[in-house]
Amino acid sequence: MDLVELNKRRTFGIVSHPDAGKTTLTEKLLLFGGAIQIAGAVKSNKIKKHATSDFMEIERQRGISVATSVMAFPYRDLQINILDTPGHKDFAEDTFRTLTAVDSAIVVIDVAKGVEEQTEKLVEVCRRRNTPIIVFINKLDREGKDAFDLLDEVETKLKLKVTPLSWPVGMGQSFQGVYSIYEKKFIHFKPHSKQDTEDSVIIENTKDESFKKIIGERPFETFQSDIETLQGVYPVFNREDYLSGKICPVFYGSAVNNFGVRELLDCFVEIAPTPLFRETEERIIQPTEDKLTGFIFKIHANMDPKHRDRIAFFRIVSGVFQRNTNYYHVRLNRQLKFSNPTSFMAAKKEVIDEAYPGDVVGLYDSGNFKIGDALTEGEKLTFKGIPRFSPEIFRFVNITDPSKFKQFAKGLDQLMDEGVAQMFTKEDSNRKIIGVVGALQFDVIAYRLEHEYTAPCNFEPINLFKACWVKADDPKKLEEFVSRRKRDLARDKDGKLVFLSESAWTLKLVQDNFPDVKFSFSSED
Ligand code: G4P
Prior knowledge:
By secondary structure, this protein is an alpha+beta fold. 28% of the residues lie in helices and 27% in strands. The chain folds into three domains: 3-271, Rossmann fold, CATH 3.40.50; 278-376, Rossmann fold (3-Layer(aba) Sandwich); 393-520, Peptide chain release factor 3, domain III (Alpha-Beta Plaits, 2-Layer Sandwich), CATH 3.30.70.3280.
């Protein structure tokens, strides 16, 4: 393994609730890396808010955004891979899966709104895997919540231990800048500052009179008491704790003003992990291993009938990926070769000859892949950590033209492989239930079944609260549960047993009645 190439890689995702500033931050990071010249290039690919009810428009934009699904750029002597995570709630599943392919994450929080619902969910996914997290509190140019209250909120709502590495002086109208605790310098806030005109002063000792002169007497006093509190309450930053997911450094800034972004990036490249190991059912795979291994974490289908190709996103875990080389597709038990694998350098796709651990390669696919599939050099491996979570909305799916049953079944199967939604088959009636995170996916499924598989369908409401994967150590207890609650049970796509609960109350009741059965909102617990 080429350790130089391996150690260059930093693969991460930016997560946030919509509107916190993820796209803006991504764009500023790309500008630093020289990956884009014009601000707005990423933004124009973003799924627009006003289009939320029009799924064709969203799909069209999603099509464009394939180019920005992975953004690779050089910075200093490193290669940074940003994996885009759709902020749109209806694509939350996509985001969950993308997070399995990152080695660390940056969480963006709006200073005025604090920790929002979507952020909580996404951070929970990161926490499950102890993904190292950096928090960026954005929009300091606006009035917002008190900086300490925000840290409390992050700790309680996101269940993260934090330590600020920068601290704001003022906020909104009175925002003067941030003091970088990490670099011991004060950076003056200038709206819309250019990356190369940063106005900063080294302040080794924040008690210095010179600092008072810069920020003024009252802010200076506030700052002194803030720093005292910080030192008393928050631990000193330690990289080991960050890498093991025990502590999250916090930065303050204003993405749209390109303020605090360079500090974030400079710290990120110093502390963020190089490509990490991954667990499989069989063993742990170290990135330094010579043989190629990796997994598919996302499949993008093109809805344009003229271009029916799909792109499977392959995260390399170990070894070197090479073009036109045979690799072993574990699930299909067959060799596959890729003649035009694409990289995502500088937001434009190009065919690549080689890629390294941490990199994501786009593989053109005609239906061979499903999410979670592994490619190796012959070893049989099943990657762990690509869980499914309980959907939020459920409907029965019915075929409208029974003569099209074959197409209908194949279509549903393929759409589920792509991860568009989840399907559960009821134990008592064999009826199929589709579960989604956002209702928009029902429109996508209906449209695609009709247009790609010529099998129109309709949906029928069903009153369900959650799908819980069930297990028990004692097979007898599980059997007893199954025989008593058969009408509420279904199988997921992998044949795992799932309890379909009508309400939180029913779930609680069943849990009380069957204390030996374990109920989980995730397929991997
Ligand atoms: P998202 O990807 O997380 O959904 O957020 P996005 O970057 O699109 O930002 C959401 C809105 O917040 C945008 O305004 C953006 O300009 C604004 N924004 C981002 N960073 C800052 C900041 O530091 N300060 C302030 N005041 N605003 C910020 P918009 O009006 O929705 O879009 P646009 O018309 O400005 O592009």
